[in-house]
Amino acid sequence: MHRRISDENQKNSSCCGCGSSEGQSPESRKRNITVAIISGCLLALGLVCEFLIDQRLFAQIIFLVVVILSGRGIIKRALISLFKKKRLDMNFLMSIAAFGAFMIGHGEEGAAVMFLFFVAETLEDYASDRAKRSINELLKLAPETAKVKKNGQETEIHVHDVEAGDIVVIRPGERIPLDGKIIKGSSSIDQAAITGESVPVDKKEDDEVFGGTINQEGYLEIKVTKKSEEGMLARIAKLIKEAEEKKSIAEAFIERFAAIYTPIVIVLAIGVAVIPTVFFGLPFSEWVYRALVLLVVACPCALAISTPVSMVSAITSATKRGVLIKGSSYLEELNKVKVFAFDKTGTLTEGKLVVSDVVQLDNNSEQEILTLTASIEQNSEHPLGQAVVKRAQEKGLELIETSDFKAIAGKGITAVMNGKTYYVGARNLFKDVNISLPEEKISRYESEGKTVVFLAEMNKLLGMVAVRDKIRESSSQLIKELKIIGIRSEMITGDNKRTASAIAEEVGIDEYQSELLPEDKVRIIDQLMTKFGSVAMVGDGVNDAPSLAKASIGIAMGAMGSDVALETADIALMKDDLSKISYLIHLAKKTIKIIRQNVILSLSIKGSVAILALFGMINLWVAVAIGDMGLSLAVILNAMRLAKVKA
Questions:
Q1: Residue 235 is assigned to a structural domain of this protein
Q2: Any domain includes 109
Q3: Are residues 367 and 482 both part of a single domain?
Q4: Do both 268 and 291 map to the same domain?
Q5: Which of 179, 190, 343, 577 is catalytic?
Q6: Three-class SS of residue 69?
Q7: Sign of the C-alpha dihedral, residues 524, 529, 532, 535?
């Protein structure tokens, strides 16, 4: 089953205490920038007073103002952490370092510690808020008002007041305010905000459209199907927020590590201050200073944000490309997947029947065979018949009127055209009317996964039409890419063995299982997980829901508009595009690579600077500027590179 981190462990970081879990408002960000500018100017003034004009007392007062101004929030959180949470965090370390510096006559460095740490906090908050702002920006894609048509009159009202069933008018260039179905008009719709596809999609009457997408050219009237808070954009925003709150295994480990690490650092710093002076008679102020530098250097802040900032960057980047990842743990799990299991219909294939072959067995042309078959099938609702009619329409063929239409359940159709009786249907129909079939030709088409429809006049077979489920253009390429990186592919389908075999061979699947019920698919997934370990299941999110839930990673195809897909799957592809799976694997590998880079960078730089601190080779300025603020900034910038991973 899925590896999910408990909600209790996801609430707050125990390491740094940097930033706010709720994010920053624009006013808060503006206030922090103002505080940073004023504090920086005061720090510069204090340095001038102390070192250039020899006004030491005035300088110390200015440095104290800098500490109070930029460190107010830091000191407050340090006290809350110590007395209420009974925990020592980074705010506590920095507060000790700053006031300790004042006590040993280095007020300028105490002020610098608080100022630089405040700047580092602000940068980290900015990085965290980028993801939260992306949610707000997503929700802002839908207009706040909608033009509702009632009794022939248009009234502009707030989207929250629009009810399901109302008719909304959208003109060229306008954004669609709510999810709905087109009841009048046709147009090209830019769906990039939801699916990530760059090319607008043609929509006509009875097609679904989604709030936040853009009507390119035509006049549309849309019947609203969902209120604003139930629409696709709202659901996506909710899932993004939930995903960012779910911690991965790496994040949970880093958090636990930091919680233990901070008290150890404090004990070590006390040892550095006390042991050399008590047991070896070395200068007290010098070793206290080194202990303070060590406290600052040992700050686990950059280490703590190395994983979450990378995960958030990856998840928000994927969302912009039409891929919803519902938790950072699933990105980690993708790197462990050994087998991808695919449903056939609607996943490897489009789930749409198309005519693949028209075969004449008499003197009639292929065009005549198609015309006669489609003319009879035009009154049928069977998917095979509809596929034949659609091909005839695409070819611009004029269909013939029929009479005495009669459907024979489970077998086919009989009808009269131009005074002649015709039969269209499956092989069992023709056994009843004593018409022999060319078994060798039929076997060839059926071995290719095609279903054959026969056309006969009285007792004479005229031709055959072969129909098949259309294979997605991206299926073969994806399977090929999986083979290159050593991932096995399996197809599990409810279709018959002959069809499954043909599709599997054409696409390049390693192994297939056919004629499966939903519970059989769950059993197969369980067997694959026992044999190979981590398994990803790719399905349509509705009939495959049990196996999607069972797999290590469930990936739903074409989740746009499907509640079941969004709720069941761990990852949802908003558009029916298998190439997004290649992107996902690449993104997951890149994310883990960047996390490792960030962790190694954090540990190596902090370790190096800590050694230099013990030997008195760096001061508090350098400790904060390089070992804390500079390193945190480097980690954030490195994580932001994930936004450039291309789909």
A1: no
A2: yes
A3: no
A4: yes
A5: 343
A6: helix
A7: positive
Q: Confirm if 501 and 512 have CB atoms less than 8 A apart.
A: yes
**Residue range(s) defining the domain that contains residue 562:** 323-349+472-588
Same domain, 13 and 128: yes
- Rounded CA-CA distance 513/494 in Å is 8
Q: What is the CATH number of the domain that holds 194?
A: 2.70.150.10
**Same domain, yes or no: 440 and 301:** no
* 69 within some domain: yes
130 and 256 part of one domain: yes
Secondary structure of residue 268 in the 3-state scheme: helix
End-to-end Cα spacing for the chain: 28
pTM: 0.68
Count of C-beta atoms within a 10 Å radius of residue 222: 28
What's the CA angle centered on 423, arms 422 and 427, to 5 degrees? 155
How far apart CA 424 and CA 427 sit, in angstroms, is: 10
- Which residue is associated with the tokens 């905000």? 193
Q: φ and ψ at 633, to 5 degrees? A: -65, -40
Dist CA 576 CA 431 (whole Å):
41
Residues in the chain: 647
CB burial class (10 A; 0-12, 13-18, 19+) of residue 390?
A: middle
Q: What is the DSSP letter of 245?
A: H
Domain shared by 258 and 384, yes or no: no
Strands 553-556 vs 571-573: parallel, antiparallel or unpaired: parallel
Host H or E run for residue 47: helix 26-51
**How far apart (Å, rounded) are the C-alpha atoms in residues 374 and 384?**
10
Residue matched to tokens 């908003």 = 574
Q: How many domains does the chain have?
A: 4
Task: Name residue 553's beta-bridge partners.
Answer: 536
Calculate ∠ Cα 26-30-33, nearest 5°.
140
Question: CA 385 to CA 277: how far, in whole Å?
Answer: 94
- Which residue(s) pair with 463 in the sheet? 360, 455
Which domain-ending residue is among 551, 566, 588? 588
Cα 270 from Cα 266, distance rounded (Å): 6
Residue 541 sits in the same domain as residue 565: yes
Pair (453, 384) in one structural domain: yes
Tokens linked to 567: 């709720």
Cα gap 493→521, rounded to integer Å: 8
Q: Determine the pLDDT at residue 191.
A: 75
Q: Where are the alpha helices (DSSP H) in 472-578?
A: 475-484, 497-507, 518-532, 545-550, 563-568
- The pLDDT of residue 9: 36
Query: Among this protein's residues, is 628 annotated catalytic?
Result: no
Q: Chunked in runs of 10, what are the mean pLDDT values of the chain (647 residues)? A: 34 42 63 88 90 85 92 88 77 76 75 78 62 56 86 89 92 90 89 60 86 86 89 70 56 64 79 88 85 74 73 84 83 92 88 87 86 89 86 91 82 87 85 80 84 86 89 92 95 84 92 85 92 91 75 82 66 87 94 90 82 79 71 82 81
Q: Rg of the chain's alpha carbons, rounded to an integer?
A: 34
